[in-house]
Amino acid sequence: SGLLSRMQTSAPTVRTLSSSESFSQNIPSSLWKLGRLNHVAIAVPDLEKAQSLYKDVLGAQVSETVALPEHGVYTVFVDLGNTKLELLHPLGEKSPIASFLQKNKTGGMHHICIEVDDIKAAMTELKEKNIRILSEEPKIGAHGKPVIFLHPKDCHGVLVELEQA
């Protein structure tokens, strides 16, 4: 019984997931599914400067500015291929972005947006799990699809937007 055989028998076993095993084995099945990251939203104090950074300096495809009065924002999307950045600028005095920029003068990450396949089922189940939703009903978002926002205090400090895929 040499040193090598003792090392082989006393070494801890490392278990790896095979491709046939699922990462979600312990997650109960839902009536809805979380999908891909749609975008990361960034509040910006100067929309033209931000557009120029991504378009002229970094060479990204940048959309035209779109006003979303119901949400109190101007939006611009930066296409990154696998996802997007959403540049947000205040529209109107009651804009949630205006208050965000008062606290964060240079701007910063505002929220992440994740797609779901059934927003109504997601709302029902999340409410049952005591996750606060910041509106009673979905609103139409920047992509023309229903969206809801989840309270950041229930999501580890992150404002999460869910968008119907």
Number of E strands: 9
Strand content: 25-35%
Q: Multimeric state of these chains?
A: single chain
Discrete helix count? 4
Q: N- to C-terminal separation? A: 61 Å
Give the overall pLDDT as a whole number: 88
Which segments are poorly predicted (pLDDT under 50) over 5 or more consecutive residues? Answer: none
Identify the CATH class. Answer: Alpha Beta
- What count of structural domains? 1
Structural class: alpha+beta
Overall morphology: globular
Looking at CATH, the homologous superfamily is 2,3-Dihydroxybiphenyl 1,2-Dioxygenase, domain 1
Q: How many strands, which pairing sense, and closed or not: the largest β-sheet?
A: 9 strands, mixed
Family: Belongs to the methylmalonyl-CoA epimerase family.
GO molecular function, one term: methylmalonyl-CoA epimerase activity
EC number: 5.1.99.1
Catalytic activity: (R)-methylmalonyl-CoA = (S)-methylmalonyl-CoA
Describe this protein's structure.
Methylmalonyl-CoA epimerase involved in propionyl-CoA metabolism. It is a single chain. This protein has 165 residues and is of the alpha+beta class. The chain has a single domain (34-164), classed as Roll (2,3-Dihydroxybiphenyl 1,2-Dioxygenase, domain 1), CATH 3.10.180. The protein is built from 4 helices and 9 strands. Strands 1, 2, 3, 4, 5, 6, 7, 8 and 9 form a 9-stranded mixed β-sheet that branches. Strand 7 (139-140) and strand 8 (146-150) form a beta hairpin. The longest helix has 11 residues, at 47-57. It is globular and about 45 Å long. The N and C termini lie far apart (61 Å).
